[in-house]
Amino acid sequence: MRQQIFLFIGLTVLLSHLCIVASAQSDDVEWLDAEEYTLYWGDEVNHSGYLIKAEDFSPAKPIDVETDYVMLTINSVYGDSWGAILSNNTVGLTNNSVFDDRLNITAIEIITGNDIPAPYTVLSVAVSNSTGSIPKIVKKIDATFEFDEKFSDEIYMGERAYYILDITHMEPEPVDSVTIKAVLPDGLVFDPDSDGVWNYSFNSYGTKTLQYSVKALKPGTYEINGTLINAELNERVYSKEMNSSTLVVHGPDIKVSKTLDAYSVNLNENVNMTVDVVNEGDRAAYISLTDQLPVGGKIISGVMGGSLVLHPDSTFSVEYTVQMDKGGEIIIPSAVVKFVDSNEYSGTSYSKKILLEVIDPDVVVATSAGSGDIEDDVDYTEETVVTDESSNQTQESLEPEEDHGKLQFLYDILDKITEFLSNTKDKIL
Fold first, then answer.
1. Is the pLDDT score of 166 beyond 50?
2. Other CB atoms within 10 Å distance of the CB of residue 199
3. Cα gap 331→351, rounded to integer Å
4. Same domain as 258, residue 236
5. DSSP assignment, residue 407?
6. What dihedral do alpha carbons 324, 326, 327, 328 form, nearest 10°?
7. How much is the pLDDT for 16?
8. What is the CATH number of the domain that holds 37?
9. Which of 91, 120, 226, 264 is deepest in the core (most CB within 10 A)?
10. Residues contacting residue 409 through CB under 8 Å, at least 6 positions apart
């Protein structure tokens, strides 16, 4: 252990001399106000991104001596690391070290001895007021790889948007695992289909290119989060998030809806229906609206369709009145809109189906009270109506037969003979 310490001392003395020279040549450096720290053996403090640790002290004596020294290690968030030995009264050592005109450390006290629980030092630490002397922070993953990405920023509906990521490995040591993950917002999908996760390994100074494409389900502006990259380097995982991007997708976005003025009416009453078609996209389209009557309905007035060019942020509406001549829970069909634009992008939009309750005063059934939209795949079962007559017949058939006791078997034989004669008579006639 002591041999390692002396080796460390020898190396650090050289570093300390270099630091002394740097300090002597940097009298014009402006230092911010210093702070004092008391570090016991093994303690570490973070001062403005510099981690200063009291690594070891001179061997303890029966009493404290003036030639004690402390060995420090310094690591910074900028990727730098130094070592220093500070002493107040040791030949060849100094109590102050300056590192690259950025960090200034002075040992005010160094206390050792067998009569204390642990040796400690009191340090005065200051950093330079010059931001130009602080190097740019380079992350481990950026020092190992170079990334260059390209992506589409504008497409039309039906077209693909492309993303390209070129990765260059800049070191000789191979890398076994680099994971790339892309997450798309709602409305965008990978085309062809993908889970958005790719894994690569790199040889010495190797290169890879990732390319994928996406399509939009509807027009709009999409904010896409940056691609996530995780690289396993020296058994540690380093992460990086690439730049976010914006994708604008042009085209018409045709939405159609149908509303009723009532969702429960009596038999033979009228229902007013309205169909609205709106273009929520940024391109005009030629639309054709068609609708159909529900079962038991007949149109009284109005129109059920039409065609025109529908511009962005515009609405086309039709209104008509239907008389309902059939009772029960009636499904109101979807209105259908077919559209095509000048770029030959086309499609079909549907309104949701609606459930309408038509009350027949002569028929009493359990209803669910029509109340609006229903799903296309919902099954509806018509209920069977039981009248008073069928109820009486059922009641009579369920009355118990008369019990004749021990003579019951004779009555059973008589019933069979009567049934036989009755059937024979029917055949003769």
1. yes
2. 11
3. 13
4. no
5. G
6. -100
7. 42
8. 2.60.98
9. 120
10. none
